[in-house]
Design goal:
heterodimer, A: Arc Repressor Mutant, subunit A, SH3 type barrels, 2 domains, 10 strands, B: 661 residues, Rossmann fold, two-stranded antiparallel sheet, 29 helices
Amino acid sequence: MSELKRIDTLEGKAGHPALCVLPEIEKEDELFEIIWTLKEEGTLTLEQIIQSCTIQECESILVDLAKHGWIELTGQTIELLPKGEKRARELVRRHRLSLRLFYDLFALDGAEAEACKFEHILSPEVTDSVCTLLGHPPNSPDGKPIPRGQCCAMFRQEMKPLVAPLADLMPGEQGKIVFITPGSHSRLDRLSAMGVVPGSVVKLHQKKPSYVLQLGETMIAVDKDITKEIFVKKV
Amino acid sequence: MHDHGSSDSERNRSSNLHKVLLIGNPNVGKSALFGLLTGTYVTVSNYPGTTVEVTYGNAELNKTRTLVIDTPGVNSLVPMSEDEKVTRDILLTDKADVVVQVADTKNLRRGLLITLQLAEMSVPFILDLNMDDEARSRGIVIDQNRLSQLLGIEVVKTVAIRRSGIDKLLKGIQHPRPSIIEVRYDDAIEGGVRDISSLLPDAYISRRALALMILSGDESLNGWLHANMQDHVIAEIEKIRQAVQSKFNNSLGYLINQRRMKKADQVLAQVLTRHDTGKRSAVAFNIGKWSMHPVYGFPILLAVLYIVYQFVGVLGAGTAVNFLEKTVFGVYLNPWAVKIVHFILPVPFLQEMLVGDYGLFTMALTYAIAIVLPIVGFFFIAFGLLEDSGYLPRLAVMVNRVFKIMGLNGKAVLPMILGLGCDTMATLTTRILETKKERILVTLLLALGVPCSAQLGVILGLVAGLSGLATFIWLGTLLAVILLVGYLAAKVIPGEPSDFVLELPPIRVPQLTNIMVKTLARVQWYLKEAVPLFMLGTFLLFIGHKVGALAYIQQMTDPIVVNFLGLPSRAAEAFVIGFLRRDYGAAGLFMLAKEGLLDPIQIVVSLTVMTLFVPCIANFFMMVKERGMKTALAMTAFIIPFAFGVGGALNWVLRTFNIQL
């Protein structure tokens, strides 16, 4: 149980999700996660799955899953069937949300290991609450997209999120940047060169006629649109 | 504002000199340091983007003949705008013996981002922590020895505008070293760096740095790549880049910057101590705050404009011009000149050429020295004060929304305001804008609707004699035209608008010595550039007058000037010389008005046409240089009929509705 075959360091590691070695049903879960991730990368083949998978009986589980209508296996190609797709999506969503929770909010080392345990026990309601609490983050800390849940579509604001867009701060308040969801790559490149990166503390000076931010000794004027994409935790 | 040191040819001549390259974030004092090292003045101001060109200056440093090179400020050596590209390119194509990275001590975090990139490039450099005084007054102290240890390079502290620490800097530049500090990126990125490096040719900067630039998606590097490598290798490199990028959801440039920032923070944690000083120069901070306040910001803007108007329009264009023109030139110089010329040159033709109605002395010099010079002088002083206070970027915050209508953002207000100084230099400054669309738009608006200092001064002098309504109509027409043309041009010119991201420098008390030196440098530039053109223009008028061409032109233009615009025939002269310099044209109108040949409506109409009229020759050449001949000609072809069209319409409205000015 405690044997973790591979733990990715975070921050944009380009690997597969850490492989959590767990009982039967959780071995299946793990395979679903691998399939989802490979599909995202566009390299989904049987060979790749076996390469990425650390479970011995990997192939036999796959055959089993195919038998029960989760996936479709034809030679090298694998397709997720609707119910398998749903299960994989929810798993990956729980995993990546858990990562965000541990990594950003609790700044925990070994977030990956904790997330592995967490993903299996979160109920759908709790998952949506976590998602809301975090401000419906679009990406996990390693930069991979978090599959959207119902709560994101409805964007319920019943629970006051801990992480909110910078645009929602009141003038004079400050927050620590948790993540940024840029509209364009060049926008993010420019901001990061001025010190606007996750972890930086930013103070909102004013909203009108333009937004003015302060980071350390740097004062920057920006469009409102940009502040909607910078998500902060109030400090 | 044309005050750059020397040209490219000078650089080539002296390419075997010892070279010192100044590099750093915007607004950290590179130009101040450059002035100190070389004794050559380059414009020093308190806003990012004052320097948009590379400037070369000779100096004797440590008993070695040295070429000092000043560069536009950069936030990253992966350029995001044209002025940043200028800086990166010089690192890429010109091997410097020493790079001096100038950093703002209180903003070391961002400075370190550049330090880390210079370290990656393996160039020998030293780090200068400038504005140490300002950092200390904010309670920020940097342990320079520890920093030097961590980076493995010399670190010195200076306050360039007070000349403090320069001896240490000079000692430091004798020992430049590549830095030992390294940033490790993600395995996938490091893999990409290895693969790309193996394909790259030798360069002045390390392959690792080049590979990281390529991975960051630096399109401005394409020119260099194509000049130095074969197409199939470039294609292969692009394939590697895409393969690495496909592994991440965020852009590689961002991930790379993020990792650098993290490293910078680690370094900073070991060298920075912060004391609470309690007094954070609250006055300056509050002035900065109020000047961008959604309510108080506008009255402050109006107050600033009013003070500038009083200073330049009333004191400069009124009092100073009257004194110089009526007393100095009118009573003393011109009559003396006439006497002297008549005495020593008994040839009527030459007499007339020098001191006649279109005389080089009585017209050209009188216009240049007695009318325009005092006005631009006063303007340069007021403008310098505004530049150094840090107010101009805050203006951008106020007008951002209005500029969005024109497909621009608040940042574009900087070149537009600079245009009030000199449209030629302002056209060059459009480099600070990020997209081509914005640069074209601003170039057009500058050429069309922004009067330069000399012209503006003369105009202020003219409208000072009119009612507030007349001034309002002139200004309102101008602003409406700028908005309308901007709005329409933004629809026509392809491309995307860019984000408004502008750094605001702290509000500072302008230094009188810098204002004086800057004003003198600009006045000198004005005399050098304007007076010869005034002479040329006058000479052409004189010849035209002599051979009757002037009368012919007036006849030709009468249908437009007299019938359409409702102006006296002689106004055509002003428009003709307006081709050479707009201020000269405006000065021509000034004289007509003084002679009582223009009624208020005629003044307003002629001023509007003159303001919108073609850019001066120097500005036109700058447009050609920066935007290309085709664009420059297209703009001019649009502007001339448009200017007369607006003037005619204005004339019609004012006459038809019988508006009393």
